[in-house]
Amino acid sequence: MLTTAIFYVLSFVCILAALMTVTLSNPVSCALSLILCLACLAGLYAQLAAGYVAVLQILIYAGAIMVLFLFVVMLLNLSDEEAAEGRYDVIRGLKGLICFAFLVDLYVLVEVSLGGRIYGCPAPGLGSLEAIGELLFTRYMVSFEVISLLLTAAVVGVVLITRKGPASALAAGRGGSS
After folding, report:
1. Of 61, 9, 74, residue with least CA distance to 35
2. Is the pTM of this model over 0.85?
3. In this structure, what are the phi and psi dihedrals at residue 122, rounded to the nearest 5 degrees?
4. Tens place of pLDDT for every residue, the chain, 178 residues?
5. Do 11 and 45 share a domain, yes or no?
6. Domain tally for the chain?
7. Closest C-alpha among 6, 14, 13, 12 to residue 46
8. Are residues 166 and 116 in the same domain?
9. Which CATH number fits the domain that encloses residue 106?
10. Which of 34, 42, 68, 132 is the most exposed place for a label (fewest CB within 10 A)?
């Protein structure tokens, strides 16, 4: 009974945070509500006995990726006029309506196809460290390495974007010595 209540609370908060992500106009608030949504997903993974996947969800998505998103938002530094230009109440209302229609459609689909029953327990060892490690380093080794190269390139790109140009550094050095 308690696990069912926790499931419904986590699901409700996750859906609410996802709706806030697409309807809020402030990009920082959107990113923070997406962090809340990802944290609720980690709780749902933990309920499925996939503890390792839940920890990865928090560390990788809610941690590293969202810090990168917030960094980009802060780097863009939109002024108040530019942020106000992007605000359309009609569009935000349509987004909410589309999300609500999607949720109703999903509910009807579950009721019709499954007869209201959600099947099953996860297979034993489904989200365990051993199972994930074995898959990563055998079947998905090439994909794992390609992603690591992509993330390394992203880090180099961020460093190059935030670094001050050599002309401004040279000018600052010469300006003090003259």
Report:
1. 61
2. no
3. -70, 155
4. 788 888 888 899 999 999 988 888 887 788 888 888 988 888 888 888 877 888 888 878 877 777 777 777 777 665 555 555 555 566 677 777 777 776 766 666 666 665 655 556 666 666 677 877 888 888 888 888 888 888 788 878 877 777 766 655 545 555 555 4
5. yes
6. 2
7. 6
8. no
9. 1.20.120.1200
10. 68
